[in-house]
Write a structure and sequence with these properties.
Helices cover 51% and strands 17% of the residues. By secondary structure, the protein is of the alpha+beta class. It has a 5-stranded antiparallel β-sheet, covered by helices on one side. Strands 4-10-9 form a 3-stranded mixed β-sheet, covered by helices on one side.
């Protein structure tokens, strides 16, 4: 049974039985990327984090030349469901889990991106985005701006890569992370940027058809959660590097956004 096409990649989720879900690549060209996602999910599962559940991998292979992997089915709620009845205690519990995860990612990193390495990663990514973007002048400005300023260093290590609330399930007193993604910078700063995407910019609330009463409640919860995370990680969030990576995050989304209303929202976020 097909559950859904997943996110921007178009990967397909199929229920195999009561305990197993199969995730399949959307195209031949996406096979290698899905394999990298599988590897990252296995690594996260092996490491283990307090309060975080990672679905176990059972098998992987190819079917009709498309890569797939079978993983544990985790029963949980999306934020649109959980936030309807969530308590203040539960909110604080989840904020604590996220914040501790970010601290662990930072503190256990064994390598550092030098400033030169970061600038090269950023320039390479912006160069790749340039051709198909309507924000060419902005991209050129960011490239020059980044080359001229001091952006410092940042810890290099494990990161989820796409830590939005559409990729998190709420399971009692824990969070289940789904849909890991490789990134042009492998650092916890990417995960903070992706959390800001929902907690500050409310991106998934714009994409989903959420009733107004629950939308307002979710916005209030997101705002509170972001304030907590920002206070705990102000050193990196207030840095020049974060500002640049935050903007690049939305330029990366641009090619996938087709709905006219969503295009307007994305444009507002990029230009603000």
């Amino acid at each position: 049974m097909i559950i859904s096409n997943i996110g921007l990649s178009g990967c397909v989720l199929e229920m195999q039985n009561n305990n197993t879900i199969r995730k399949s690549s959307a195209s031949y060209s996406y096979n290698s990327r899905l394999e990298r996602q599988l590897h990252k999910q296995i690594v996260f599962s092996d490491v283990g984090y307090n309060g975080i559940v990672i679905p176990r991998i059972y098998a992987n292979g190819y079917y009709n030349s498309l890569f797939y992997f079978d993983m544990e089915y985790i029963r949980g709620l999306l934020f649109t469901q959980k936030f309807q009845t969530i308590s203040k205690y539960e909110i604080d519990t989840y904020v604590g889990i996220l914040s501790n995860f970010l601290k662990t990612q930072k503190n256990t990193a064994t390598e550092i991106y030098t400033e030169i390495e970061l600038k090269n990663c950023i320039d390479t990514k912006l160069s790749a985005l340039y051709t198909g973007s309507k924000y060419k002048d902005l991209i050129q400005f960011i490239r020059k701006y980044t080359s001229d300023i001091t952006i410092g260093k940042v810890e290099r290590g494990l990161c989820h890569g796409d830590l939005t609330f559409s990729n998190i399930l709420f399971t009692n007193d824990s969070l289940c992370f789904l849909d890991f993604l490789d990134s042009y910078i492998e650092s916890y700063i990417i995960d903070i940027v992706k959390l800001k995407q929902d907690l500050y910019y409310n991106w998934n609330l714009h994409l989903l058809n959420v009733e107004s009463v629950y939308r307002t409640r979710a916005q209030q919860i997101f705002s509170y959660m972001w304030d907590c995370i920002k206070m705990e990680h102000a050193d990196i969030i207030e840095s020049e590097l974060f500002s640049v990576v935050d903007l690049i995050n939305y330029l990366r989304i641009e090619p996938y956004v087709k709905n006219d209303e969503h295009v307007k929202i994305l444009d507002y976020i990029i230009r603000r």
